[in-house]
Design a protein that fits this description.
The chain has 13 helices and 13 strands. It is α/β, with parallel strands linked by helices. About 40% of the residues are buried.
Length: about 325
């Protein structure tokens, strides 16, 4: 049987699938050509990440399709319910990229509180002529230790982020309409661990209480953070979004950054991917990455091997 990994798959995933008797094709097929390619090449499994969409049109056009797989968590680029109604298995890897995304959240948090994103822009331009001026400009850093991190969505990635925050000595609060409370186990290198319980609270109380806010939610119909929500947050709050574009009103965010209400933002995802607004890209108070939350070698290895094991168990 043939597997089309249209958005790529790790070497370890390819090897596991080949060992299970599958032929893996990693040719990048244009979105409008996916259905034809699947049919012409007798593809049984299509694997995607966030780039390729598997909607009703492709599902209807490909009667031989047995599995649609998403490398990662979010399934908003797949018509999941419709695929299942047609007898197609839909799989993903919700646990594989949690640590990588959580580490990127803290990369943005550390960048924000110490102005690294702006310093790295300006040091090459002015470091030799205005060293003392830049030193003064970036002298008002903030420690994360002892501050309150508000985690919106305390699923797997939210929990991984909470663990890192607890390890840093932060207070962690959470809002999640599906998870009323969760036990967070922080494990250390020597086998010891501590466990603490986080009880979910209202979004409004989280926005009022948190020094920093990180979002870990699926794609939404509307904004989770807009003008009204920004208004009730603490002055000087930091906001990180490594979840999905469209959950923050970017116009309202820029306005809040310009007024000083929000100290900084860290964005890995954007309302208009893959062409983010220039007002976002050029804002010196925003730390920017191009949707790379799960893009570590370790996460991609875990994603590839986990997809392979699921495919083999279904079709093997």
């Amino acid at each position: 049987m043939k597997v089309l990994a249209n958005d790529g798959i790790s070497k370890s995933g390819i090897l596991a699938l080949e060992k299970g008797g599958f032929e893996v094709i990693t040719t990048k097929v244009a979105q409008e050509q996916v259905a034809n390619f699947v049919n012409e090449n007798n593809i049984s499994v299509v694997l995607v990440r966030s780039a390729t969409k598997v909607r009703k049109d492709i599902i209807d056009a490909c009667p031989g399709l047995k599995i649609i797989g998403r490398g990662g968590v979010g399934m908003d680029n797949i018509d999941v319910d419709y695929a299942k109604s047609k007898g197609i298995h839909v799989i993903n890897t919700p646990a594989s990229s949690s640590e990588s995304v959580a580490e990127l959240v803290f990369a943005h948090l550390f960048s924000g509180v110490r102005f690294l994103h702006d310093s790295n822009r300006n040091m090459p331009l002015e470091g030799d002529t205005n060293f003392e001026g830049l030193k003064k400009a970036y002298a008002n850093g903030i420690e994360l230790r002892g501050k309150t991190l508000g985690v919106v969505g305390i699923g797997r990635i939210g929990q991984a982020t909470a663990k890192m925050a607890l390890g840093l000595g932060m207070k962690v609060i959470a809002a999640d309409s599906f998870i009323p409370q969760v036990d967070i186990k922080v494990a250390f290198f020597d086998g010891q661990s501590i466990t603490t319980t986080i009880v979910s609270q209202s979004l409004e109380s989280l926005f009022k209480e948190a020094d920093f806010i990180t979002l870990h939610v699926p794609a939404q119909d509307g904004y989770i953070i807009g003008e009204k929500e920004l208004a009730i947050m603490k002055d000087g709050v930091g906001i990180v979004n490594c979840a999905r574009g469209g959950v923050i009103d970017e116009v309202a965010l820029v306005k809040a950054l310009d007024s000083g209400k929000v100290l900084f933002a860290g964005l890995d995802v954007f309302e208009n991917e893959p062409t983010p607004e220039m007002t976002i890209l050029m804002n010196h108070k925003i730390s920017l990455t191009p949707h790379i939350g799960a893009a570590t070698g370790e996460a991609q290895d875990r994603i590839g091997t986990e997809l392979a094991s699921q495919i083999i168990s279904i079709l093997g």
